[in-house]
Design a protein that fits this description.
hydrolase, nuclease, Staphylococal_nuclease_OB-fold, alpha+beta, OB fold (Dihydrolipoamide Acetyltransferase, E2P), five-stranded mixed beta barrel, two-stranded antiparallel ribbon, SNase_OB-fold_sf, about 170 residues, endonuclease, single chain, about 20% helix
Amino acid sequence: MRRVYFLIMLCIIMVAASGCTHDDLDPLNYTPSSSNNSNSSSTAVPNNTTSSSSSSSPHTEVSGKCYKVVDGDTIDVEGVGRVRFVGVNTPERGDSGYQEAKDYVKSMCLGKTVGLDIDDSKNKDKYDRTLAVVYVGGVNLNQELLKKGYAEVMYIPPSEFNPYGWT
C-alpha cells in the first residue's frame, strides 16, 4: 500500500512540475538579448528601439521622450532614466556658461523624442546614468554642444566614442 501511495505522489509531483516549465517565449517575436561587455555592476538598458524615428540616426539603439533636463550634459528619458552625454562636459551649476548650456539642451530636447546611441564599452557611469550620444532630429547633440562652445571634450576610457573627432 505504501508503494502505491508513493507512486501516486511521485506522478502528481511530476505532472505539477512539468506544468511549471512551460516556455512562454513566442518564437515569432523572440529577439535574443545582446551580450553586455561592461562590468558586472552595471544594469542592462531597456531595449525600446523604434525604427526610422525622425529624432534618431542609424546608430540609435533606444529612443524615448525627454521629460527633464538636469543640466547641460544630463537628461531624463522615458523608458531609460537618467542619461549622461558621453564624451562631453558642460559647466556645473554656479559656473559661467551653466545656464546657457542647460537652456540649449532644453530647447533641443525637452518634450521631444530623442535617440540614444549607448556606449557599448561602458554603458553606465559611477552614478548609474546611461552613457550615450544623444540624437535629436538626426543631429548628434553631444557634437553640437562642442561645436557651439557649450561643452568641452571629456574622454574617459573605455568608450567606443572619440569625442575629439566631433570638434
